[in-house]
C-alpha cells in the first residue's frame, strides 16, 4: 500500500510531478556522510540529489497538503537520512502498482512509500528491486462504515458476495485474495488507498483492507468509518532501490543506522505515531 529534527541539517524537498524516465547517465552522488563518518561511495541520477518515487497519498507516511510540500513519516525519515549522506531530496509522484518497475528502470533512485519487504509480497518485489534494512513494523487494518453496516465488526462477519476494497499492488490486496476471496468475497482494487475509503463512505464496499497506520489516519477525517480489526501479518517496511546500485543501498543503510542511533528516528516516530511505543530495534544508542 504501505511508511514519516534533532541534531541534523534540515533538507528541503523539491516536489515535482512524475516525469518520463531520466535519460541522463548516473553521476557521482557522494561518498561521505554529513555527520563525518565514512560511508560507501555511491551514485545517484543527479549529483547531490536523491530522486525518490512515492505515491504521496498515503497518510501518515507520505502526503502533500494543498499548496504544500510532501510531508509524513517516510518523507521526514528520508530527508534525515539523505542529509547524513550530503544529499537533497527530489520527490516524484508514481502510482504504487507501477512504482517498483519504475525504479528498476531508472526513473528515480529510490522508493519511499510504506513498502512491505517481508512475506510473499516482499519476496515477489525482491525479484525486481533491492531493499534497505527494515525501518518500520506494521499490520493490516480492516475498516468498516459503522453507519451503513454496523453489524460488521471483523472480517469474520463478511459474507459471500460482499465487496472489500484494497489498494492495487499492496500486501492488503494479497491478504484479501488469499483469505477472503476463497469465501466468495469480492475484491475491488483501487489505484490509491484514499479512493477505497471514499467508496466505503458511500457504501459501495463493505470494508477496506489496508495498512493499519494508514487506515487510522484516513478515518480521522471520515466520520462514520472505523478501524475495527488489526490483522497481524508480520510486515516490515523498507526502502526500495534498483538492483544495480548496491553501493547506494549500503550507504543508505549506514545513514539509517545513524538516525536511529542519534535519536532522530525516535523524534520523527513520536511526531507521527504519538503514544505508540518505539520498537526496541529503533531505540537510540
Word description of this protein:
The structure is a single chain. The strands form 3 sheets. Strands 1, 4, 7, 8, 9, 10, 11, 12, 13 and 14 form a 10-stranded mixed β-sheet that branches. Strands 2-3 form a two-stranded antiparallel ribbon. A two-stranded antiparallel ribbon has the order 5-6. The chain has helices at 73-84, 99-104, 119-125, 171-179, 193-201, 212-219, 246-261, 264-272; strands spanning 13-16, 27-32, 38-44, 49-54, 57-58, 62-63, 88-93, 110-116, 129-131, 136-145, 163-167, 186-190, 207-211, 225-242. Helix 1 (73-84) packs across helix 7 and helix 1 packs antiparallel against helix 8. The protein is α/β, with parallel strands linked by helices and 285 residues long. It starts with 12 loop residues before the first strand and ends in a 13-residue tail after the last helix. It is built from 8 helices and 14 strands.
Highlighted features:
single chain, 285 residues, alpha/beta, D-Maltodextrin-Binding Protein, domain 2, 10-stranded mixed sheet, two-stranded antiparallel ribbon, 14 strands, 30% strand, disordered N terminus
Q: What is the terminal-to-terminal distance?
A: 31 Å
The CATH superfamily of the largest domain is Periplasmic binding protein-like II
**Number of helical elements:** 8
What is the CATH third-level topology name of the largest domain? D-Maltodextrin-Binding Protein, domain 2
CATH architecture of the largest domain: 3-Layer(aba) Sandwich
Low-confidence stretches: 1-29, 32-37
Average pLDDT number: 88
Total domains, how many? Answer: 2
Q: Radius of gyration, Cα only, in angstroms?
A: 19 Å
β-strand number: 14
| Helix/strand class | alpha/beta
Sheet of most strands: 10 strands, mixed
CATH class of the largest domain: Alpha Beta
Bin the strand percentage. 25-35%
Question: What's the helix-strand series?
Answer: EEEEEEHEHEHEEEHEHEHEHH
What is the global morphology?
globular
Query: How much helical structure, as a percent, in the residues?
Result: 25-40%
